[in-house]
Design goal:
Its EC number is 4.2.1.17. InterPro entries: ClpP/crotonase-like_dom_sf, Enoyl-CoA_hyd/isom_CS, Enoyl-CoA_hydra/iso, Enoyl-CoA_hydra_C. It is an enzyme of class 4 (lyase). The chain is of the alpha/beta class and about 260 residues long. It folds into two domains: about 190 residues, 2-enoyl-CoA Hydratase, Chain A, domain 1, CATH 3.90.226; about 50 residues, Lyase 2-enoyl-coa Hydratase, Chain  A, domain 2, CATH 1.10.12.10. The chain contains eleven helices and ten strands. Helix 5 packs across helix 6 and helix 9 runs antiparallel to helix 10. It is globular and about 60 Å long. The structure holds ligand LDTOBESC. Ligand LDTOBESC binds next to helix 2 and strand 6.
Length: about 260
């Protein structure tokens, strides 16, 4: 498929999606949404892909939802289209998705990064929810996901003042998993994804589902869910292979079964 707003490639067992609207700092419009979702779904269906990375440019991961597209939108347009609901499909991708963020991740850009399973940030990354400066508020999950990542106080600060958080503060606050030099971002993200893709895909997908369940349920239900999924892993050939390989002091050969 030919894409207009993203670049898509596969490196080893990793699917790489690069947002590519440099003149608009990768602002997220409906074409970007359709193309990102199409690429994600293609990687999800590709048995040769074990993990996915979404990135942008060194200046901007994404500077937000496309303000020029929203400027003349009416309430009824937004309501009837259930505007932004399409991005929720990202959280239904079952393979791991890593956001590799350099530069601005603002508004919808920050929200897109937070929809991914974890964020690796370049040391020049800047995160923010500046929608309030435009007379609106976050609409792609920022008020909910940011609060879960960094707590109420910081989320309120960011959503109400519109201030940006740098990479160091984002790491300290738990928004990002690690910070790396900007020039090494893609290699670090691809290395993390390649490592994940080298493991048993069903085990990786079950682990992702279990961690995500912690956001949706009580601790006791979550612990029960984890145990039940863990028990089911003893039906995997890859469990036998992984544990046998450890005991036999060799590298496991996972077959994703
Ligand atoms: C409403 C909801 C729910 C979600 C949202 O995401 S709203 C958008 C939130 N994001 C923002 O408010 C950030 C807007 N952008 C900026 O503040 C600045 O562009 C910047 C601080 C990120 C970078 O400033 P800089 O001076 O380096 O670059 P600019 O000349 O301002 O931008 C270059 C080029 O990109 C266009 N641009 C930037 N962001 C967006 C955007 N979110 N939507 C559409 N277009 C955007 C900007 O207009 C300029 O293009 P033109 O020169 O052709 O106007």
């Amino acid at each position: 498929m030919a894409y207009e707003t993203i670049l898509v490639e596969t490196r080893a067992r990793v699917g790489l999606i690069t947002l590519n609207r440099p003149k608009a700092l990768n602002a997220l419009n409906t074409t970007v949404l359709a193309e990102v979702m199409a690429a994600l779904e293609a990687f999800e269906a590709d048995a040769g892909v074990g993990a996915i990375v979404i990135t942008g440019s060194e200046k901007a991961f994404a500077a937000g939802a496309d303000i020029k597209q929203m400027q003349s939108m009416s309430y009824v347009d937004a309501f009837m289209a259930d505007f932004f609901a399409g991005w929720e499909a990202l959280s239904r991708i079952r393979k791991p998705v890593i956001a590799a963020v350099a530069g601005y991740a603002l508004g919808g850009g920050c929200e897109l990064a937070m929809m991914c399973d974890f964020i690796i940030a370049a040391d020049n990354a800047k995160f923010g929810q500046p929608e309030i400066t435009l007379g609106v508020m976050p609409g792609m999950g920022g008020s909910q996901r940011l609060t879960r990542f960094v707590g109420k106080s910081k989320a309120m600060d960011m959503c109400l003042t519109g201030r940006m958080m740098d990479a160091e503060e984002a790491e300290r606050s738990g928004l990002v998993s690690r910070v790396v030099p900007a020039g090494e971002l893609i290699e670090e993200a691809l290395a993390a994804a390649t490592k994940i893709a080298s493991f048993s895909l069903p085990a990786v997908m079950m682990a992702k589902e279990a961690v995500n369940r912690s956001y949706e349920t009580t601790l006791s239900e979550g612990l029960r869910f984890e145990r039940r999924v863990f028990h089911s892993m003893f039906a995997l050939d890859d469990q036998t292979e992984g544990m046998s390989a450890f005991v036999e002091k060799r590298t496991p050969n996972f077959r994703n079964r």
